[in-house]
Write a structure and sequence with these properties.
Blueprint: E1 20-37, E2 48-50, E3 56-65, E4 69-77, E5 85-90, E6 94-102, E7 109-121, E8 124-134, E9 138-142, E10 146-160, E11 172-184, E12 190-201, E13 204-205, E14 211-212, E15 215-228, E16 234-248, H1 261-275
Antiparallel strand pairs: 1-7, 1-10, 2-9, 3-4, 3-8, 5-6, 6-7, 7-8, 8-16, 9-16, 10-15, 11-12, 11-16, 13-14
Length: 280
Amino acid sequence: MTRRLLAAACLMAAASGAMAAASSSVHINGVTITLTDLDPNDGIAASATMMHGSQPYLNIGAASFDPAYSNDAYAAVGTHGGSGLAGSVGTTFAHSSATIAGQSSIVGFSGIALDGGALSTAAGYGEYGATAAPYTSMNVQVAANTRVTVTFDASIDVATTVGLDTAGNAERAMGRILMAFDGLDADGANVVDEQWQELLAGYRLDDAGNVLGDSYHWAGQLSVSFSNRSASGTVASLYSEGVIGGNSVVSAVPEPATYGMLLGGLALLGAAARRRQAAV
């Protein structure tokens, strides 16, 4: 979840005390599950059955340095597989919010929305982050000769305003969507279909070499599938997540040693959630 921004001597600076801001949003909706019968003559109907309902999971954080450190955080796991969660946190210079609409399906949710932002002035600055996902991978019983395809409609927006200052302090904003389907093929080998989209905003230079903020937008579909081409049912695992993170910093405020701890923790929690496999 990090991006290294290198400062050059020729870069123009943002004026001391100028307002700076970074923001991220990730939205996932329009979840579609498609079943394909790979052998219509075998007498077995194509099917994909959820073996358990993994609870939805949220982890949200925001922090400010003004110059003392303050933070606000929220983490929760839904009480059951179809439950939904929503939370928001905020500090003087940062905010973050997240929702996940739980659904009793092989995906585990029908939608995810993550939004966050951070500001900085000569008085202080902030950072934010959030992760939303099923708490564990969804275990799915896939019938013989069946292909299961999961498709998301999604969008990501990231933006910064100042980008970089003379001290090499950088704004950044990140948004990421990841989904993966894996299981054993007919020969017993593990196969993985993984799709992801990530946008990073930091700084850019105009024709005169001035440092400017950055912004990117993506909207489209992500799709993964698993094919069971064997003559008997098998178990596959589906995992998906949305993540945002960012910070805004100006050189007028010293950087505490605690900087980056919030987003680093969110990254580790998101990675850990992805690797959890529920008992079959």
